[in-house]
Amino acid sequence: MSKKKKVLVTGSCGFIFSNFIRLGIRYKPDLTFVSVDKVATSHSLNNIYAHNRHKFHLADVADIHIMDKIFELERPDIVIHGAAESHVDDSIASANPFIMSNVLGTQVITDMCVKYGVERLIYISTDEVYGQLGHDEVAWAEDARLSPRNPYSATKAAGEFIVLAANQTHELQYNMTRCCNNYGPRQSTKNLIPKIIKNIINKEPVPIYGKGDQLREWIHVADNCFAVFHILEHAPPNEIYNISAGHEVSNLEMFHMICDIMEAGQDGHDLLTFVEDRKGHDFRYSVDFSKIKSIGWKHKFKLKSGLNQCINWYLNNRWFLRTNDV
Fold first, then answer.
1. Cα–Cα distance for residue pair 180/27, rounded to 1 Å
2. N or C terminus: which one in the chain shows less Cβ crowding within 10 Å?
């Protein structure tokens, strides 16, 4: 990009985009950042990053009045819409907050992008919009049919269609990403990897759904963040990109791998506790990410080295695990 751009990021107190802001400040001196988050949980305050190239607004993306004022004040060049309710278990318990944030919030953000002439909107979706795969089925390409199977993924798919409609109706320029499971620093202990790490540290049972045979692809959060930057800088508009590092393991394998890296011994492995599987639990996700590789992006972290870095961060920041009790 030839001139300095102002990037508005939604969801900046969440796991992925708190890392995104930090990496952007460090590695992208040609960008300034404005961000929005409603800070739905008190521990989200731990993720706010103070810097003279980052201005934070406490706001809900579904509140059209306050978002209009923020866009009027900030006039961003680029919007990266990452704010979302994202925990599948929570969406099964109550879908309403997901409708508000992921559907209405996306409509509000899209409307503001059109109203204030934003150059491009990057909508952060998920590989879960595709549904699920069997053991031997081919990984999804970007043109695969969407078939979400839980309220969370259904609302993310709805957000995609809202963005596509704004492109067709108002010629809003966009990109979308559908990323696999992320891991790394600053992730809530609701999520599998930090939950395993925390429970091993505390010598508490580690709950694994069903038989733990669900298959997921994993990518270090920094690799995902740099993929978004790469799309911003190098991708043509109005294209969708799968993002993955291709590291596919079962939840059970992930548990044992973390135990081994943490040198938890047999006592650590014995913390494994199988619990009743959740309703409609998708068996396998896998995406073909050759399209983003074709524009020059590649991941840097191999799974074991990435997990080492992640585990060391939590071991050196145990306060984060304590303040993220859920």
1. 23
2. C
* Catalytic-labelled residue, pool 60, 128, 160, 217: 128
Catalytic residue of the set 127, 160, 217, 282: 127
The Cα–Cα gap between 212 and 251 comes to 5
Please state, in angstroms and rounded to a whole number, the distance separating the CA atoms of residues 102 and 62: 9
CB–CB of 16/221 below 8 Å? yes
**Residue with the two structure tokens 């009027």:** 72
Q: Which residue has the tokens 């692809």?
A: 217
In this predicted structure, the answer to whether residue 55 has a pLDDT above a threshold of 80 is yes
The verdict on pTM exceeding 0.85 is yes
Whether residue 11 contacts residue 62, with contact meaning beta carbons closer than 8 Å, is answered with: no
Tokens representing 242?
């799968």
Contact criterion met (CB below 8 Å) for 25 and 33: yes
Domains of the chain with CATH codes: 5-182+220-243 (3.40.50.720), 188-216+247-283+302-321 (3.90.25.10)
Structure tokens at 153: 């993924």
State CA 25 to chain mean position distance.
19
Closest residue by Cα to residue 35 from 90, 74, 86: 74
Catalytic residue from among 152, 174, 183, 241: 152
Query: What is the dihedral angle through the alpha carbons of 116, 240, 284, 271, rounded to the nearest 10 degrees?
Result: -50
